[in-house]
Amino acid sequence: MSEIVKAEAIVLTKINYSDTSNIASLYTDEFGKISVIIKGGRNPKSKFGMIVDPLNYINIIIYKKETREVQLLSGADLISHFPNIKEDLNSMKYAYAIIELVKNLTPESEPHKLIFKGLTRILSLLDQSREKPEILFGRFILFFLKEIGYEIQLNKCSICNKTGLKNKSLGYNYERGLLCDDCRKENITNYSIEPELFNYLFCLKNNEQISSLTEKITKAANNFFEAYIQFHVTNFKGIQSLRSFN
Ligand SMILES: [Zn+2]
């Protein structure tokens, strides 16, 4: 039994399949991450081939069969293709880093409306250049890690519960969490967090305004995120998009 269903989706990836078709990975509001085949999608005249392209925000109609791993796409139209992101290399880099994370760290066919909402929202903020791409990426990744069960806790020391840790040199233990200066002495630090980095992460997490940002801090934050995910997710190979756009 197959049924005809509609959903909204962000296109994560698209690959060629056979001489004529494409297979795309989509993150949808109704079904979470799914794969669809676009029959005839490689034909330049194919309507859907153009619309179903990475980063695009689309409406889809599919013939859905529970037992099938790849669903058949029967209709698609565009909600937004985020034109401003595509005109700026740095925005592209971070937009691709975001869809790469969603592609690699979410399970197939598990709907999660908040992740879908967060994903469409962050792409639209990137498109409007509301903040620097690296800042929007940082805000998204902290939200996303929380939603998939790997929250980075930054509000207090994970051992003694001390708060007010701004401007201090701290440590991060990937299993326990944040370590204050005292607790670092008795617990293993997996990652040292300098005051500048901590202040930045704290602002990202608490949605505070960030007025200045150096390349050094961006790099340190991205390295921290990657190392943190690597610890929790086996076979995670880093965020390739952060490298391939340089
Ligand atoms: Zn402590």
Structural class: alpha+beta
Strand count, sense and closure of the main sheet? 5 strands, mixed, barrel
Helix fraction by DSSP (H/I, runs of at least 4): 25-40%
CATH architectural label of the largest domain: Up-down Bundle
What's the gyration radius in Å? 20 Å
Write the layout of secondary structure elements.
Blueprint: E1 3-17, E2 21-28, E3 32-38, H1 47-51, E4 57-64, E5 70-80, H2 83-86, H3 89-105, H4 113-127, H5 133-147, E6 170-173, E7 177-179, H6 181-184, E8 191-193, H7 195-205, H8 215-232, H9 241-244
Parallel strand pairs: 3-5
Antiparallel strand pairs: 1-2, 1-4, 2-3, 4-5, 6-7, 6-8
The chain binds zinc ion.
Overview of this protein structure:
The chain has 246 residues and is α+β, with helices and mostly antiparallel strands. It folds into two domains: 3-80, OB fold (Dihydrolipoamide Acetyltransferase, E2P) (Beta Barrel); 83-244, Up-down Bundle (de novo design (two linked rop proteins)). Helices cover 38% and strands 24% of the residues. It has nine helices and eight strands. Helix 3 packs antiparallel against helix 4, helix 3 (89-105) packs parallel to helix 5 and helix 4 packs antiparallel against helix 5 (133-147). The longest helix has 18 residues, at 215-232. It is elongated and about 65 Å long. The mean pLDDT is 95. The site of zinc ion has 7 residues, from helix 6.
Summed up:
The chain is of the alpha+beta class and 246 residues long. Helix content is 38%, strand content 24%. A hairpin with a 3-residue loop joins strand 1 and strand 2 (21-28).
